UniProtKB/TrEMBL annotation:
This is Kinesin-like protein. Residues 45-468 form the Kinesin motor domain. It comes from Cottoperca gobio (Frogmouth). Belongs to the TRAFAC class myosin-kinesin ATPase superfamily. Kinesin family. Residues 797-807 have a biased composition (Basic residues).
């Protein structure tokens, strides 16, 4: 069994990101960099939880492999590739492994209850939210893995969302701010509503509630709040159990502040944002309007014109959720899609109110992501392809952002571009990822063998997410909001609107009226002067105040517009760079292809040249063979002569007496013989190597001969086949000739018959004329025809026949 090292595991299809535009998140790998963090900043890796859905009845009765997912302990799970999965096939080819191990912050098995999941996952984020910080939870996984079940739950098993709402109302207790005049504004601000606007808010809310049925719909399964809306229309009768200790940090009524809860519910489908709390959505004819994602001027993205509804009870929250879900499925049906193809986001904003001003805003978003399955090219086309592309794109961008965040933190020096702005989803949650809140992910998987490959992909994605370190600034979000400051450095904007008190101080009379204004007053009488001066002073003050307010507004607008422009140009630059990258990539690929072709061509040419070099014509080969034979003969002759010579030397000299006298001569002879034998040996070796070469040549030529004879055989077979065909054709021709001869013979016979007929006719014509008979017979007709050939057609026919035959 092999174990996956998560630090190297990077199965996600992510491209490298290399632009020099960094997000505010700080690297955490060096102590020096850590020292640069704000003193109260908190660091921790992103929490990634795994939830394994139980098998459904149908899945249990299936004969599929049911051991793909093995939970080893509360933090480790292993995935075993089942038969037929692409992963197993690849591992059998030696690519990748068939068993993968992953670790998570915590793993929740199939038997785990919703309440336990809430306690162990959301608790810390819940207290963050109640404490004025932002929180984001997103559920990620393939379709049918249990994402919606985890977020919303069922009437009997409420999910995280109803539990968060319930806990929030429990925390607020009796401190609910009932006036609706303080409303969330932009991303992090709030604004005052005038009485008319409050009225509008109330009627909008009432119209939504009027369209939601009061009774619970038993057929709708996935809204955990529905049971609460029936049973808990007041806060005191909450049926959800949760750990009360999370609320202990702010005991009820401690500082006299109140709370208002506003919620929004929207979805992102095909890279368009749609409000799920818009009543118009329910009508079939109207096309729903897409909302824009804008920047609030401080780099925080928000959905422009998104409907925020103030809720005062859990029952109201339930109705909104029901309304939004209905809208979502109605829109999905209308567009012939499945709601699981869109990302749905439920956001709560908790406003802490002291007196009549908002002192703190915190946000809790629960994001039910679209099914993460990659598009199957064989089945996906047209609108579905675009849809799959957009889902994949936003999830891919989410993956890219997470990887870039991880890489930046791991690298510590090089900060790479984090493409938050490339999708609506990441653009909206950029602030949370960059430290203005805490994000966590619940990965949902099922244990089905049929979706194993996709599940593995999901696990790899989460392995990367788990390594992201979040640096969370321990400051309320308000401090990060844009602000105009006065000369004393105090902000002039409060919750997005100009603060009248600060403005009073800023526009002091002394500052506004200078000496020039005083100078002209000496020309008038004292009383008149006094009155005029007072009225003028009041007018002037009012005018200058108005002007300054206007100036500040213009400055703010200009600042926002410039920032917007800067961001747009940055986006454009990113797009251009991407395009350039793509075109360079394409060029590079083309050049590579050209080189590949050239190398192939060269290899082919070299092979052909070698073939030509090695080619030996047959007559040359035979001549070479003869030469080899001759050389062999020569070698054997030389060998025999050498042995004779050596033999002669070995024989003792018969005449011993001549030994002394001949010793010198013998020595000389021996030296000569030695030299000769050496020469002969060398020659022999050379000849042997030549022989060997020739032998090789012979072998190759024999092989070639064999090939040739095979080809000859083939040619002969072909020839035989052809000659057989020829024989058949010959037979046919013979038959035709024979038939022609028969025709000729017949025509000769006919000629002869005609000649004899002619002779007979001649005889007949010389005979005396016969008296014509009343009744004319055949003979009379013939005679007439012979006598006047022009009139008689048989005669003409006869001549014609003769002519044709002769031809
Ligand atoms: N932990 C669980 N315990 C019991 N039933 C579950 C669990 N998780 C999911 N289910 C059931 O499995 C089915 C599919 O779940 P759900 O609709 O939540 O999947 P999903 O991932 O949201 O799918 P989609 O992406 O299509 O919306 C539902 O019937 C749900 O009730």
């Amino acid at each position: 069994m092999s174990t996956v090292d998560l630090t190297n595991e990077d199965g996600i299809n992510m491209q490298p990101v290399d632009m020099d535009m960094t997000c505010e998140i700080s690297p955490v790998s060096t102590s020096a960099q850590q020292a640069e963090q704000p003193v109260c900043a908190e660091q921790q890796t992103m929490k990634v939880y795994l939830r394994v859905r139980p098998f459904s009845k149908e899945e249990l009765s299936d004969k599929e492999d049911q051991d793909c997912v093995v939970i080893e302990n509360s933090q480790t799970v292993s995935l075993n590739a089942p038969k037929g999965s692409a992963t197993l096939k690849s591992s059998e080819k030696g690519i990748g492994m068939s068993i993968h191990k992953f670790s998570f912050s915590q793993i929740f098995g199939p038997e785990m209850q919703q309440s336990e999941l809430f306690e162990d996952t959301v608790k810390s984020q819940m207290s963050d939210f109640l404490d004025g910080k932002n929180a984001l939870i997103f559920s990620y996984g393939v379709t049918n893995a249990g994402k919606t079940y985890t977020i919303q739950g069922t009437p009997k098993q409420p999910g995280i969302l109803p539990r968060v709402l319930d806990a929030t109302f429990h925390y607020i207790g009796g401190r609910l701010h009932e006036g609706m005049y303080l409303k969330p504004y932009l991303r992090n601000d709030a604004r005052y509503l005038d009485p008319d606007q409050v009225k509008q808010e109330r009627s909008a809310k009432a119209s939504i509630f009027a369209s939601v049925k009061d009774e619970c719909d038993p057929h709708r399964a996935c809204v955990g709040l529905e049971s609460l809306s029936c049973s808990t229309t007041s806060l005191s009768s909450s049926s959800l159990s949760y750990d009360q200790t999370m609320l202990a940090s702010n005991p009820s009524g401690e500082d006299g502040s109140q709370f208002a809860l506003w919620v929004a519910f929207f979805e992102i489908y095909n890279e368009c944002v749609y409000d799920l709390l818009q009543p118009s959505l329910c009508s079939k004819s109207k096309k729903r309007a897409a909302l824009r994602v804008c920047d609030d001027g401080a780099g925080n993205a928000y959905v422009k014109d998104l409907r925020w509804i103030n809720i005062q009870t859990l029952g109201e929250a339930s109705k909104l959720l029901q309304f939004g879900n209905k809208n979502r499925s109605a829109a999905a049906t209308k567009m012939n899609q499945s709601s699981s193809r869109s990302h749905s986001i439920f956001t709560m904003k908790l406003l802490k109110i002291d007196g009549s001003s908002v002192t703190r805003i915190s946000e809790f978003s629960l994001c039910d992501l679209a099914g993460s399955e990659r598009c199957n090219k064989t089945k996906t086309f047209g609108e579905r392809l675009k849809e799959a592309g957009n889902i994949n794109n936003s999830l891919l961008i989410l993956g890219k952002c997470i990887t870039a965040l991880r890489n930046n933190q791991a690298d510590g020096i090089k900060s790479s571009y984090i493409p938050f702005r490339e999708s609506k989803l990441t653009k909206l949650f950029q602030a949370v990822f960059c430290g203005k809140g805490r994000a966590s992910m619940i990965v949902n998987i099922n244990q089905c063998a049929s979706t194993y490959d996709e599940t593995l992909h999901v696990m790899k994605f989460s392995a990367v997410a788990k390594q992201v370190v979040q640096v969370i600034a321990d400051k309320p979000l308000k401090s990060l909001a844009p602000c105009l400051v006065g000369r004393d450095g105090k902000p002039l904007l409060r919750n997005g609107v100009i603060d009248s008190q600060a403005l009073e101080c800023y526009l002091s009379e002394e500052e506004l009226l200078d000496e020039e204004d005083e100078a002209n007053m000496s020309l008038l009488s004292q009383n008149e002067h006094g009155n005029m001066i007072d009225s003028l002073r009041t007018k002037l003050l009012a005018e200058r105040r108005r002007n300054l307010v206007q100036e500040m507004e213009v400055r703010k607008e200009m600042g926002d517009a410039m920032l917007q422009q800067l961001m747009e140009s940055e986006e454009l630059r990113t797009q251009q760079i991407d395009q350039l990258k793509e075109s360079f990539q394409e060029k590079l690929e083309n050049t590579f292809e050209i080189y590949k072709d050239a190398i192939k061509e060269h290899a082919y040419q070299s092979a052909m040249n070698n073939l030509e070099d090695d080619y030996v014509p047959l007559d040359e080969f035979i001549a070479e063979q003869e030469k080899v034979e001759a050389l062999k003969r020569k070698v054997s002759a030389l060998e025999s002569s050498t042995s004779t010579t050596v033999g002669v030397c070995a024989v003792p000299t018969v005449v011993q007496s001549c030994q002394t006298r001949a010793s010198k001569a013998t020595e000389a002879t021996e030296a000569t013989e030695d030299h000769r034998s050496k020469w002969l040996y060398k020659e022999k070796c050379a000849l042997e190597s030549i022989c060997e070469d020739k032998q090789q040549l012979i072998l190759s030529l024999e092989k070639r001969l064999k090939d040739l004879s095979k080809t000859m055989q083939n040619v002969r077979d072909g020839f035989l086949e052809k000659s057989a065909d020829l024989d058949v054709l010959q037979d046919k021709a013979d038959a035709q000739t024979k038939s022609m001869e028969d025709i000729l013979r017949q025509s000769v016979e006919k000629d002869r018959e005609i000649a004899s007929l002619k002779a007979e006719l001649a005889k007949v014509s010389q005979m005396p004329p016969v008296q014509p008979k009343i009744k004319r017979g055949l003979l009379a007709n013939i005679r007439e025809a012979v006598a006047s050939p022009r009139k008689s057609s048989p005669g003409r026919t006869l001549r014609k026949t003769i002519k044709t035959t002769q031809q």
